[in-house]
Amino acid sequence: MGITVQNITGTTAIVIWPKMASCADSFYSVMYHPNWNSMLSSYSRKSFQKEERVPTSRSSFVVENLTPLTTYIVCVTCQSANPSSDQCRVFNTLERDPASASNTKKELALGIWLTSSVLLLIIAAILLYGCLHLLCRRRRERLQGRNGTSEQDHRKAWTKSTVHNSEELGRQSQLMQDIEEKHPGGIQLATIIENPSACKEPVTPTSKSQERVPTIGQCSAIN
Questions:
Q1: Where does the Fibronectin type-III domain start and stop, copy by copy (predicted)?
Q2: What are the pLDDT digits (tens) for 90-134?
């Protein structure tokens, strides 16, 4: 068939073949496999690692994802038929392209960076949620503590006022009792002193030997 392999690199190669009239209404099968030594015994389709179907309008195919510094065998047949020796070619891949290696490293570094960024964002979101939850809980506890303290202060003030009033009433009651015990007739005495005319009574005349005695005992007691 005159198969040729061109533009070989460490991971790719272009396979070119002439068009066949027998495949006009069908497709081409491009089969390739590494380690040519294992393929010397037969050319069975089942022995190939990869197989790609290409439309008959095309006469070339780019083989990708090859291993650098490896010997490959590639065959092109019509309608997935078992290839013959004249339908196959052997080629060796080159070393890995420095640009490709650099791109691979960049892609790897970019993937690691993206993964790390996502993890950091998740961790930051979790920490932020935890901090906000803690702040809200502390604020709620502080407000509850203030409300409890104000209620306790109100209760203490009311209790102190009640106790003070009770003590004041007790002192007044005790003072009144002390006054009554010390001066049981103090009120009547003050009234009589203020009105001394109430004690003046007429004196009945008696004999010369008798003295004038007031008729009311309270006034004599006062005198």
A1: 1-96
A2: 899 998 766 666 677 788 888 898 999 999 999 999 999 889 888
Domain ranges (residues) in the chain: 4-96, 97-150
Q: Roughly how many angstroms between the first and final C-alpha of the chain, as a whole number?
A: 167
Give residue-wise pLDDT tens across range 6-35.
999 989 999 999 888 778 778 899 999 887
Spatial separation of the C-alpha atoms in residues 66 and 90, rounded to whole Å: 14
Give yes or no for a contact between 78 and 28, defined as CB atoms under 8 angstroms apart: yes
Model pTM?
0.44
Q: For 29-63, give one letter per residue: b (16+ CB within 10 A) or e.
A: bbbbbeeeeebeeebeeeebeeebebebeeeebeb
Rg (alpha carbons) of the chain, rounded to whole number = 63
What is the side-by-side strand order in the sheet with 50-55? 50-55, 27-34, 71-78, 88-92
Report the CATH fold assignment for 4-96. Immunoglobulin-like (2.60.40)
76 contacts 20 by C-beta, under 8 angstroms? no
**Residue 206, helix vs strand vs coil:** coil
Residue 1 confidence (pLDDT): 66
CA neighbor of 29 nearest in space, from 76, 65, 74? 76
